[in-house]
Amino acid sequence: MGAGKTTVGKQLAQRLNLQFVDLDLFIENRYRKRIDELFTEKGENNFREIEHKTLLEVSQFEDVIISTGGGTPCFFDNMLIMNSRGKTVYLKWSVEDLITRLTAYKHNRPLVEGKNREEMKQFIVENLAKRESFYNRATVIFEVSKMAIAPDVDSIVDELAGSMYPSEK
Questions:
Q1: What residue numbers bound the domain in which 67 lies?
Q2: What is the C-alpha separation between 91 and 98, in angstroms, rounded?
Q3: Is residue 32 part of a domain?
Q4: pTM of this structure
């Protein structure tokens, strides 16, 4: 959450002349409900099944960059599926950078909306502890926080395109 998957994915798709699919938005459009509503109504297990089936569908698309929710790689065999269908990217930020990013936009994110800085840090640390072993299976681990220049979207896209497709740099 807050890593910039959708923002970077859209610009990377445009740069590489590929389609872009946001998996959460795809699900919301299909079910005509927000992800948090589906989660509440159906429960996490049923939502994760919907997410898995939708991932199987969109991963068949050609010439596409897919942005998934932060939990998607952690359920079923989703990471294996994604790795078998193309390159996967983990946009890796430091905990401190994620705190800053999520604090700035927490009004749009129900899971962190009422949290203070310490609660936000605990939330991020706990979620990374559960999820990072899945994220680290990505074919490209892109350490955004270690970029030499300030990590803006254009510089992230340039560096990422270069690391994924060296001829595009």
A1: 5-152
A2: 11
A3: yes
A4: 0.85
